Amino acid sequence: KGAVRLQDLYAAYGDRVQFLVIYIREAHPTDGWAIPVPGRKKLADPKTIEERRAAARQCESTVLHGIPTLVDEMDDAVNTAYAAWPDRLYLIGLEGKVVYAGGIGPFGFKPAELKTAMDKYLACWAKVEE
Description:
There is one protein chain. By secondary structure, the protein is an alpha+beta fold. It is built from four helices and four strands, in the order αβαβαββα. It has helices at about 5-15, 50-65, 75-80, 110-130, and strands spanning about 20-25, 70, 90, 100. It has a two-stranded parallel ribbon. The chain has a two-stranded antiparallel sheet with strand order 3-4. The termini are far apart. The mean pLDDT is about 85.
């Protein structure tokens, strides 16, 4: 059995859970903490929202997970609110509260944990609807 991938979760749960990727700051900009990422063009930290959107499009096409991607504004409001840099997984419940907050990536980026949280949450809602 292989590792759980985000795109697998999207395929399995996308009809019951809304998935979104929020592109925040560039994790490894050439003008910052630069680390080569295989298969990815080297990018400077975007200075405008247009540059950030272009970087998000590139990331979306490189990763090919099919999950809709939104872009955090230049004030980094989403990144700040969710302590999301460099990457992080969250499950937000229907009532708008955080149900699952994954660890800080890359080591805390664990789709298998998100799967467990989604299974528990969906099971609870199934009981409520009965």
